[in-house]
Design brief:
Blueprint: H1 2-10, H2 16-28, H3 32-54, H4 61-80, E1 89-92, H5 100-106, E2 112-115, H6 119-149, H7 157-179, H8 181-184, H9 199-215, H10 221-238, H11 241-252, H12 265-275
Antiparallel strand pairs: 1-2
Amino acid sequence: MKQLTHRIFGESYMPQTILKLSQKSRDLADGDARHIEHLAYVNMEFSKLCADVKKGHLTDPTTIISDALALDVKMVSWALSLPYEWVYTTIDNPSDRESRKFNSEFGPFGTHHHLYKDLICCSSWNNWRAARLLLHEIILNNADLLEMQSQTPGHNLELSRVAERTKAIMHEVIADICATVPYHFGALDDGSISEGYNATSAGHALLWPLFLAADCPVSSQEVKQWVIMCLGKIGHGMGINQALAMAKLLNDGLSPRTWIRPESYVEAEILVKLATAGTSCL
């Protein structure tokens, strides 16, 4: 997974040998491993799209949007193919004043949070969300580019529908990533800590999805500040210094997505090094 993270953020191609091995592994795996391998294969296709855009093999915004939407169909199909035990439970966040301690201690954001059968399941869902968030950012960026190139801006209704749907999906994905934070912090629906909770593993699994949720162009300032607070908890409370580096990058306004913001090559190199240093997300 770390190599795949590097490929996506470096916008470089995955070797054909690894692609073939991944497909074979997906076909042979069973149980939870099959779902994980399936997701990895889809994300490898995503890394190819990123590389094609960076290297100039894909330059037409309409084609990029079309290819990205086709890949999004595969991502949605992955989610729909999951068995019942992979379906997460949605818990309403406490809203009364006496429950404020729960909110401040475990960090829920918004109206709800999620519970999962285990950390592997939760991490897989967040890997999927993080990749889908980046994919829709590519769609949004190219929709904006087409809008700027249009002779009659604002009159392409289909393009406007694509952009609005993409923004809605991104907001939903961000909310769902944030809703996994209490589970990663070991919180159960009653505010207690789950048995067998491994803070280090949970913290590493959360880093990249949380960072990307905050760095997304549609994220509110409230989300960004809340994520910075959570990264501080992971860094100081779980001893994961990488989280503190990510919090600083967010404060400084740096971004890892060079295929969307070509001026950010230096920042991207920093983030690629962070990604390969000890986290497994995409």
